[in-house]
Amino acid sequence: MTITQTSAAAPATGTPPHTAHRRRRRRTDAAGAYLLLMTLAVLFVGPFVWLVLAAVKTKAEWVAIPAEVLPDTFQWGNFTRALTEINFPAYLGNSLFLSFLYAILVTMSSAAVGFGFARLRGHGKRPLFLLLLSTMMLPQILTLIPTYVLFARAGLVDTYWPWVLWGLAASPYLVFLFRQFFAAIPAELEDAAVIDGCGYGRIFLQIFLPLSRPVLWTAFLLSFTWIWGDYIAPALFLDPDHTTLSVAIAGFYRDPHGNPDATVQAAAAALYVVPVLAIFLFAQRYFIRGVVGSGLKG
Q1: What is the CATH number of domain 87-294?
Q2: Which of 45, 100, 170, 244 could form a disulfide with 95 if both were Cys (CB 3.0 to 4.6 A apart)?
């Protein structure tokens, strides 16, 4: 008896051409995205690196043409001079106080306004929200002089009350962030709280506000940096003895001839960045969640 053995055709082991093409394209896209991110990182970090290098140079090396990238001897004493030539701790305390005060107030007030736009019902709510958003297109520098006149007539110049009032007035951008986040929360959660006898104030404080922790951190970080990096408002509203560190760095470091001491200013500016970096590194995961979680829901 003859036995005839048949075997099935072996499956092809090679990768289909279209699949290989997609893989190559994904690798190319990933490499391009990585190169773009690295380029942007260099562009953003480059000025700070240049600032640190300027802080450890002598004045002659700073003004030399062509500019020298690295100093012959690192002048670490510039940082000591930056801390001792002015009342650095006092100005630092003023900046921290104003930044924390404004950030806390504007975060809470913006959360309350955003909750109202997201969950409360009323006639004209949508046009009012659009009007609020339209104010973001108005440069703040245009309103600074009228605001100064109002505060001067109220006797609030050379005090910290302007920052309190600005914080209580909420921020249109932060209101938008909170409104988008609160609008995405399921209505069933609110309905269940209403059935249990909760008012809107309790719903906001005990339910919605704890859920918005990422957006709270995002709003706090953004508003903190707004005040921390502001120069014009403190220079305009505060006297030199109670002003912020940004004004002190820009105007109070002088050489014996009365000229700005650029290298010491650079050292002070490098130290000025440290608190913001520390806060961001601590809250970066909440910051990313808050920006992504707010979305663009209408």
Answers
A1: 1.10.3720.10
A2: 244
Q: Which residues lie closer than 8 Å to 286 by C-beta, 6 or more apart?
A: 213, 214, 216, 217, 218
- Measured CA to CA, the distance from residue 191 to residue 297 in angstroms comes to 20
Amino acid letter, 27: R
Q: 254 pairs with which residues across the strands? A: 260
User: Treating both helix axes as pointing N-terminal to C-terminal, what angle do 262-294 and 88-119 enclose, rounded to 10 degrees?
Assistant: 20
Q: Is 295 left (phi over 0), alpha (psi -120 to 50) or beta?
A: left
Report the 10 Å Cβ neighbour count for 14.
7
Rounded-to-integer distance, Cα 171 and Cα 157, Å: 22
Structure tokens at 67: 């500019």
3-state helix, strand, coil in the chain (%, to 5): 75, 0, 25
- How far apart are the C-alpha atoms of 82 and 85, rounded to whole Å? 6
Q: What stretch of H or E contains 103?
A: helix 88-119
Which residue ranges make up each domain of the chain? 87-294
Q: How far apart are CA 114 and CA 211, in angstroms?
A: 14
pLDDT per residue of the chain (298 residues) written in tens, 0 to 9: 444 444 444 445 555 666 777 777 788 878 888 888 888 888 888 888 888 888 898 888 877 777 777 888 888 999 999 999 999 999 999 999 999 999 999 999 999 999 999 988 888 888 999 998 898 888 888 888 899 999 999 999 999 999 999 999 999 999 999 999 898 888 888 888 888 888 888 889 888 898 888 889 889 999 999 999 999 999 999 998 899 999 999 888 887 777 888 889 999 999 999 888 888 887 777 666 655 555 444 4
- What is the residue type of 229? G
